[in-house]
Write a structure and sequence with these properties.
Helix content: 40-55%
Order of helices and strands: HEHHEEH
Number of domains: 1
CATH class: Mainly Alpha
Strand order of the largest sheet: 1-3-2
Shape: globular
Radius of gyration: 12 Å
Mean pLDDT: 84
Oligomer: single chain
Number of strands: 3
Number of helices: 4
Amino acid sequence: MLRLITLYVHALFHAMSKPAHWVPVQKAEEVLGIDRKTLFKYRDDGTLKLGPHFAAFPETRSRDSYRWNTVSVKKHLQKQGMMSLAA
């Protein structure tokens, strides 16, 4: 339980650092050119991490209400060779 709280606080801190980059899944799909199914697959398989790539907020009730750091996700996926540099 303490680990979950720590992760939540860490994610919230990252979310507040540059709020313009943290967007709902609908906007993340548009900005990244990746559908929500793929974003959630990357979340579930550990490709994307809680904190630097996505965050849950107090109003989060489902996967659709996570916020996504599009800048961080894009850099990470490009580094992993999972997204073209032109994207």
